[in-house]
Structures are given as structure tokens and as C-alpha cells.
Amino acid sequence: MDPKKFGVAVACTDGRLFASGDAEEPFSIQSVSKVFTLAMAMGEVGDGLWQRVGNKPSSESFNWIVELERENGIPRNPFVNAGRLLLLTFFWRRMSPERRSAKFCAS
């Protein structure tokens, strides 16, 4: 991705869309998607979420699995990979078997 590109888009609840810059350029949101996953999980589960995932800063890299072992299987926060995967289980359990087995792809 060209680091000189920048775009922003805002979708309003009434259906209006505002975009500027390189907003039409496809890009990967990678770890930014963890914020959306957390927001969705908080909407589904509420504060009970914090019984399954911590809210402490991580002292290691986001993909370091040893910290999960030190925390007795509870991810330090929703922004490390183990925390994100745990959040996804809240949605996985609510999906139908057909939806679970569907293949998703962007077109």
C-alpha cells in the first residue's frame, strides 16, 4: 500500500455517505478490525465480556502466545490476537451451522 495515500469515509445512520481523499482505494484494515469486533461484542455481551477477556495492557507482542499461558488462558485484552479470537466466539455460538460453514470472500 502506498503510504502517501489517505482516505476517509463516514456513513451516517440516515444513509448519507461522505468520502474524501483516496476513499475509493481498497485497503486492508488488519488489526483495526479488532476495534470493531470489540464494539460488536460489547453490544452483544455488555460488561460480562470482561469476565472472559482482560483489559490490561500487554507487555508483549500482539501475537505472543506465552502471555496467554501466564494468564491462565484469559487474554490480557481484546487487542491481542488471542483476545480477538475469544471475542469472535461470542458471535460464532450464535451463528447457524450453515452460516458457520459458509465461505466468505470479498468481491
Description of the molecule:
By secondary structure, the chain is an alpha+beta fold. Helix content is 33%, strand content 9%. The chain contains four helices and two strands, in the order ββαααα. It has a domain at 30-101. The model has no long low-confidence stretch (mean pLDDT 85). It has helices spanning 33-45, 66-70, 81-92, 97-101; strands at residues 7-11, 17-21. A two-stranded antiparallel ribbon has the order 1-2.
Give the CA-based shape: globular
Taking pLDDT < 50 over at least 5 consecutive residues as the criterion, the unreliable ranges are: none
Largest sheet: 2 strands, antiparallel
Instruction: Give the proportion of residues in helices.
Output: 25-40%
Count of strand segments: 2
Widest sheet: strand order? 1-2
Mean pLDDT across the residues is 85
* Number of helical elements: 4
Strand fraction band?
5-15%
End-to-end distance? 19 Å
What order do the helices and strands follow? EEHHHH
By secondary-structure content and strand pairing, the structural class works out as alpha+beta
Radius of gyration: 17 Å
Outline of the structure:
The chain is built from four helices and two strands. The protein is an alpha+beta fold and 107 residues long.
Topology:
Elements: E1 7-11, E2 17-21, H1 33-45, H2 66-70, H3 81-92, H4 97-101
Antiparallel strand pairs: 1-2
What features would you highlight for this structure?
107 residues; alpha+beta; two-stranded antiparallel sheet; 4 helices; 2 strands
